[in-house]
Design a protein that fits this description.
This protein is α+β, with helices and mostly antiparallel strands and 376 residues long. Helices cover 28% and strands 27% of the residues. The termini are far apart.
Length: 376
């Protein structure tokens, strides 16, 4: 037969507050959220939950002390409650429900509950997102009161079982309705659902056991993140209930657009202006990348809108090695003003082009034939 007192690491004459304190400590130690994938911790948590289910209830504890586990298996008429299997089943259902946050009985108030999560938005420049950066942010969160260590009581103050709800934290309230008398279960108005009363509440937290603090946190943002990327920092949220784990901090990233590069995933696009002379004759042009200016050879006869690819000059991948590509979109710039010498040369070029440039003649003929079809 299992010894519930040994499981909770308490003496047989332990008070209700001592039972609760030990349970919270052990529940936090073996909570599945803090021991993911650990089957032994999962089994241990279920075991201490069952032990607390029995020993925290005055009648169940009395029956257990007198008859052992038989006293909670319904083997005598004055037990007043269901079997051990039902208790274990309830605990298992709560475990399987995720988060241990479902309440379905008086003792559910002491089940460890994970703290609330926190959302924080961080604005990044384009280059901070591309190259990565470390930011220090300041959040406000609930933590265990440092003055009373989360007990809610002044040092030396007594924490006793509530005499109104007898430690259950709940009361039955009857009311009349057109369908008859209705019985509702509500939080005890004296202990506010805790099952305990404090003689002298902590002056810092006023008996709540928590305090709001400003916390500075360093956040390492990896290279290559994009707009709406979410960074999760486990355990940096609000403090949990009844020894439950802290919530998480979710950091949402907002990245500003760049005036030069346009990003699509991990690829970058750049509209590269070149002169019409370079477009016609070809040659070497200077192209900006994220880190430097590089020389790039364009072929003669390059048309406006032509796209060239430069491999591995894009944005780094976050979860694997390598980078995206840089795509150069050619934009041919025609000057609005020319010198007399330039004008003379261009006039000669136009004259020569109209006389012997078969390619231009062919393109013009095809264009006007299409234009003519619109009016036929």
């Amino acid at each position: 037969m299992r010894d519930f007192y040994e499981i909770l690491e308490i003496n047989r004459d332990a008070s209700v507050s001592e039972i609760k304190k030990s349970y919270k400590k052990l529940a936090k130690k073996y909570h599945p959220d803090l021991n993911q994938g650990d089957k032994e911790a999962e089994a241990k948590f279920k075991e201490i939950s069952v032990a607390y289910e029995v020993l925290s209830d005055e009648q169940k504890r009395s029956n257990y002390d007198r008859f052992g586990e038989d006293g909670i298996n319904g083997n005598f008429q004055d037990s007043g409650f269901g079997g051990f299997g039902d208790i274990f089943g309830d605990i298992f259902d709560i475990f399987g429900g995720g988060g241990f946050q479902r309440e379905s009985g008086a003792d559910r108030r002491d089940i460890p509950i994970k703290g609330e999560d926190i959302r924080y938005d961080v604005n990044l420049s384009f280059r901070e997102a591309v190259f990565g950066v470390e930011k220090t942010i300041s959040i406000r969160r609930l933590e265990e009161c440092k003055t009373c260590n989360g007990t809610g009581a002044e040092e030396g103050s007594k924490v006793e079982t509530c005499d109104r709800c007898h430690g259950t934290g709940q009361m039955k309230v009857q009311s009349s309705s057109p369908f008859g008398r209705v019985v509702r279960v509500v939080d005890c108005d004296k202990c506010h659902g805790t099952g305990e009363t404090i003689e002298n509440p902590c002056k810092k937290c006023h008996g709540v056991g928590k305090e709001t603090v400003n916390k500075k946190i360093n956040v390492k943002i990896p290279a290559g993140v994009d707009n709406n990327t979410v960074i999760t920092m486990s355990g940096e949220g609000h403090v949990g209930e009844n020894g439950g784990p802290k919530g998480d901090l979710y950091i949402y990233l907002n990245v500003k657009e760049d005036s030069v590069f346009k990003r699509r995933g991990n690829d970058l696009y750049l509209e590269m202006p070149i002169s019409y002379v370079d477009a016609v004759l070809g040659g070497t042009i200077k192209v900006p990348t994220l880190t430097s200016l590089i020389d790039y050879e364009i072929p003669k006869g390059t048309q406006g809108g032509t796209t060239f690819k430069i491999k591995n000059e894009g944005v780094p991948f976050v979860r694997r090695e390598g980078k995206g590509n840089l795509y150069i979109i050619i934009d041919i710039i025609v000057p609005k003003k020319t010198s007399e010498e330039q004008r003379r040369i261009l006039e000669e070029l136009r004259e020569n082009s109209s006389k012997g440039h078969e390619e231009i003649k062919k393109e013009r003929k095809g264009f006007f034939e299409k234009f003519k079809e619109l009016f036929e």
